[in-house]
Design goal:
46% helix; 477 residues; alpha/beta; binds glutamic acid; seven-stranded mixed sheet; five-stranded mixed sheet; Rossmann fold
């Protein structure tokens, strides 16, 4: 993906950090301390598979321990390497600070093609990788808490949690050693959709500020906006689905690894996803839209909103000048390189940066971790008490209306909604919405409040770096 002259992913993140840090009143020593990656552990381990020993290489990088545990996903892909893991760990640090999840930043990765192995083999490999990390406290509820990332999901997290429990039989908080587990294994409702849901909440908040939308030359809300989505994995799928089904956005293109589906009238995301599940993850052959194998060209389509939700570095020096979207939300980590970012900004595009845009995942991970440590599901104590209180009010209103002959009729829809106490899913969504709104407004204050800040990425870094600096300073550094 990299074009000649482009820095590595890690360098790109560093350059973005430095652009913001240069505007801050902070000693170079502290800047350096915040920027550098604390440690990266490389593990090579063997697993007996298909009659022979296969050796795998994995990483767990800890970028910053200004707060512990440190947090970040584990990626399974053949392209995983140290530079990438360190860049992603750094982004985790900044992301956690921005959305106020009380964690430092970390990331893990395993060089593997997850499609090449069956479930039983994947379990053996995952448990062995987890074993290597657990015995070094690189997975631990108090020190380092992984989560899903590209190529991993609930299944892998459940194996990791079980592996930790087997190795720490008396740790009452064992379940909190990893997040993104399935609900039946200590997970939380709404974690799978969380990153995509966060993208939706971020966009809703953006459009609540007409003057911000206007900076991208856009008016109105999400309704009818023409959207191009790259990547229909967990993040892209949920983001596109919610924007289409709940906000009335028109998804005109969906890009995947074998090409792009196009329809100017809008695509049905659920229908496409069902097609992909049945067709080996491929778009080709989908009967209800136009298919083209040139996915990269579709990034350059005329649209209102571009959502890169796949890999890093997809918008680079080689194509940035041709990207037409006035608004880009980075659902993936690092989809725009440092150089491309500059080209897009000069052209006037508004970029909602990754560390904010995709923070929904780690936010709900935080809720899951808290749930595991408190050993009780959210809402369990309050739900019925809340319902009883609401019922009291409704019954009193109805009694008053009858007594006074007022003829008031509460609509059945209102009554049903009002009488229903919040369960875990509703509470998780409420907490996520609140987090996304608060973080946007923290960035916005810097974006609008400072003459020398022209874009949301620099604003995000400034908010986040100042919080990390405060944490270091209170530790005596
Ligand atoms: N891998 C996700 C991310 O990049 C989630 C991390 C987490 O939940 O800890 O933000």
């Amino acid at each position: 993906m990299n074009v000649a002259g482009e820095p590595s992913f890690r360098d790109s993140v560093d350059l973005m950090f430095k652009r913001a840090a240069a505007l801050m009143d902070m000693s170079p020593g502290l800047q350096e301390k915040i920027r550098v990656c604390n440690s990266t552990y490389t593990v090579r381990f063997g697993v007996r598979l298909r009659g022979e020993i296969k050796t795998f290489t994995g990483y767990r990088s800890v970028h910053s321990e200004h707060m512990e545990p440190v947090k970040g996903g584990i990626r399974y892909a053949l392209s995983v390497n140290q530079d990438e893991v360190e860049a992603l760990a750094a982004l985790m640090t900044y992301k956690c600070a921005l959305v106020e999840t009380p964690f430092g930043g970390s990331k893990g990765g395993l060089c593997i093609d997850p499609r090449a192995w069956d479930a039983q083999e994947m379990e053996l490999i995952t448990r062995r990788f987890a074993y290597e990390l657990i015995k070094r406290d690189l997975i631990n509820p108090a020190q380092n808490v992984p989560a899903p990332d590209m190529g991993t999901g609930e299944r892998e997290m459940a194996w990791i949690a079980d592996q930790y429990a087997r190795m720490n039989t008396t740790d009452i908080n064992a379940k909190a050693c990893v997040t993104g587990k399935p609900p039946h294994a200590g997970g939380i409702q709404g974690r799978v959709e969380a990153t995509g849901r966060g993208v939706q909440y971020a966009l809703r908040e953006f459009f609540r500020h007409p003057e911000d939308a206007l900076k991208a030359g856009l008016t109105g809300g999400l309704e009818g906006k023409r959207v191009v989505v790259q990547g229909l994995g967990n993040v892209g799928y949920h983001a596109a689905k919610f924007l289409y089904e709940e906000d009335g956005a028109r998804v005109i293109a969906v890009i995947e690894r074998d090409g792009v589906l196009l329809d100017d009238k809008g695509l049905d995301i659920e229908d496409i996803r069902n097609w992909m599940t049945k067709n080996n993850g491929l778009l080709a052959g989908y009967p209800r839209a136009t298919f083209s194998p040139d996915g990269a060209a579709a990034l350059e389509l005329d649209c209102d909103l571009l959502i890169p939700a796949a890999l890093e570095g997809v918008i680079h020096l080689g194509n940035a000048a041709r990207i037409k979207a006035p608004l880009i939300i980075e659902a993936a980590n690092g989809p725009i390189t440092f150089g491309a970012d500059e080209i897009l900004r000069q052209r006037g595009a508004v970029i909602i940066p990754d560390m904010y845009a995709n923070a929904g995942g780690v936010t709900v991970s935080y809720f899951e971790w808290v749930k595991n440590l408190s050993h009780i599901r959210f809402g369990r104590m309050q739900r019925r008490a809340e319902e009883a209180r609401s019922r009291l009010l409704v019954e009193e209103l109805e009694r008053l209306s009858a007594d006074q002959g007022l003829g008031w009729q509460l609509t059945p829809n209102f009554k049903q909604k009002f009488l229903q106490g919040d369960g875990e899913l509703e509470l998780v969504r409420s907490g996520l919405d609140d987090t996304m709104r608060a973080a946007y407004n923290a960035m916005r204050e810097v974006w609008h409040g400072r003459q020398d800040v022209q874009d949301l990425r620099v604003a995000a870094y400034i908010v986040s770096i100042s919080r990390i600096a405060a944490a270091y300073q209170s530790k005596g550094l």
